[in-house]
Structure formats: structure tokens, C-alpha cells
User: Fold this.
Amino acid sequence: MPVHQRDNQYRGVNAHLHSLLQREGGGWEMFHAAHITHLTDALDVILPEGYYVLNEKSLQLSVIGADYEKRGISRPDVAIYRDSTYTVSGTSLPDSTAVATIPLMDTFVEDAPLDTAVIYRIDAVDGKIPVTRIELLSPANKPGGSHYRTYMSKRQETLESGVNLVEIDYLHESRPITTALKSYPDREPNAYPYTILVNNPHPSLSEGRTTIYGFHVGDSIPVISLPLVETEALEVNLGGVYNTTFSRNRYYGMVAVDYGVEPVNFAAYDESDQTRIMERMRVVNSM
Assistant:
């Protein structure tokens, strides 16, 4: 008999759901669209004065104007902008639970194409200054995916232009976008099934840093420190946003996720995460 619960029964990423979402026709696009909408709504509530957030198409090419010879630039899932008249107040970065911080340049792919002619800065056109870009990585954007090289090119372009980049990776079955991270599907030691990269290209690209948040099945999704302008930052509870996405669509809890059976492709999880999944199933089935 199927075992369903409307709300997410994992502390963090729902292992049952994300195993299903990574199957062909599993519904990743539907989850992606809903989660980005909920993330945009959550940020709109907590952003300080002088900022606003827009929900934009990921990796879409956008023509800026004739001065750029119709060169295209990437558009993020979520973009945070600063009002051009706003004065930075100097709020410092909050403490975080990151597992590591590495040089930003270590996350680059050496042979990724680079288009240095484009600068993602459009304040002279309509008063908007792009500050932070947030991407919920899709299977096609990761190694082996059809858009991996394109994504890595646009990623580097974004960082070259001085825009902060947050990359949320809830896809445990594919290798991370950079070899600076350990590969979970390859069972490398100290690898995580889920990671969040906060890339800050300031004060310069060569001096920029990437803060890594890594977590396992059963761990809470970390509260991240989202960089804005200069020393300003914002604490963002991504776990709360994730649970909103899960509970707002009854399909996830009442149809897709069955805690009475193992997730599809259960072997894609390492032994420790398999144990955590089985324990979660035991608890939910005893409720």
C-alpha cells in the first residue's frame, strides 16, 4: 500500500522526489519552474531597500543593443538588481555553515569558451544594475548534459562582468559542474550529493572566492549568505523555499513520493545516504 504525506518528510532535499525528477519525463522542468517562482517570491520579501528581484529565463540569450553588435548574454533563473540611486550601508556578511571556501578561479573549466566582448551591466539603459544571479542547475547544464559547455561559457561571462553567482545543485546523479568539487556519483571521498556554490568575483576575479555548502540526505538545506553589493549580504533560508515548493503542489507528496518503496535508482546514493533514506522510510511508515 502506498505511503504518502503532503509535506516533505525529509529535513532537506527529498531523496524520493529527486530520484524521480532525474528520470526522463520525471518532471524536472515543472519543479524547476515552481521552485524559481517561490525563490523569487521569498527574496522579494526579505531584500533590503534599494534592491529588487526578477524571475528570468535561464541561459536565454538577450540582445542588448547595436553597440554590442547584437551579442547575446545569458539570463539567470533569478536576478537581483540594485537601484542606481541606492547608497550601500555597509552591512557585513553573516556567519555561515559553509563546508569550504576556495579561490573562485579554481571553479573555472579551462577550455570553456569565453566571450569577453559582453558585459552584463545595463544600468545605463534602464537604471538596473545586475548584482546577483541565482541558478538552479538542471541536468542539461551539468557534465554530460547537452548545454554544459554553453552554461560554463555563460557562467564565466557572468563572473567576468562582476555579477555574483549562486549555483544550487540538487542533482546527485551527475558530476558537479567543476572538478574543484568531489564527485558524488564517482564515490570520491568527502563528496556531497547536494551542493550550493556562492561565487563572489570581488574585489576582482583573481581574488574572488567560492563558498561551498555541501550536505547529505537527511541534512537541512543550509541557510546561505547571499552576497549583494560590496559588503552587503543577506541570509536566505533555502530549506524553507524548498518545503514551500514541495507542499504547494499535492502531486509531489500525494502521488509522486511513495515512502513505502525505495526511491528509483536507489543505488545512485552512497551507502551512508542509503542508510539515511531507509531510516526516514521506517519513521514515516511508523507514523
Observations:
- Confidence is low (pLDDT under 50) at residues 58-75, 85-96, 110-125.
- Residues 15-285 form one domain.
